[in-house]
Amino acid sequence: MSGKRSFFASKKKATNPFDSDSDDGDKKQQRPARASSVPSPAEQQDSLFGAGAGGQERGGFFSSSEAPRNSHYRNDFRDAGGLESQSVQELEGYAAYKSEETTRRAQGCVRIAEEMRDTASKTLVTVHQQGQQIHRTHMMAVDIDQDLSRSEKLLGDLGGLFSKKWKPKKNGTIRGPMLSRDDSFIRGSHLEQRQKLGLVDHPPRSNAREFRSEPTSALEKVEMEKAKQDEALSDLSDILTELKGMAVDMGSEIEK
Fold it and tell me: Where is this region: Disordered (predicted)?
């Protein structure tokens, strides 16, 4: 009996499909993957001035190894001991970062002012066209008043045919808007109206002036951004001057 048990036990062990090789394979499959220490492409591309708004690469003299400094620049080194405890190199990079940020904000103000100018131009043309409609309405009212005056005169001449003599009522003269423009103000086309109102189509604003070479230091970067800021502020001043003139013209149109 014991011999039979040993025979079947050995047979069962020999025919076991789960051998040691499969056990080793399972252990290999269950082994966790090693965490990769290679930084992601986004982290490699994120440099001090390499990535701007929207993650687009701007290019510059800063390498991708300086990407962690962006967080310090954004919060003004609050988590790194403040500005007083930073080195000269860190402060130069901080100044370059802030100058580029100021340039972006100045250019954003220029774009907003351009949108305001376009809206003001359309509003001024609309007010001008409404003034033309009011003028035409006034002229038609004057013609109707003259026709009524002639009709009342004819009815007065035919007073004998009526039991009661016709007595026309005396009304004041119709007064309309005072015109101070030439004939093109009345008959002009849309383009002529814009020219009369001083509204000309502005060409698209050119980008900042091109520099011969990329900046090689933080100070050169600051000077380049300063030139861009001066150009943006000059454009902004011109647009604000145009808006002021449009406001004066719009007030003159409304007062008529």
Answer: 1-84, 201-226
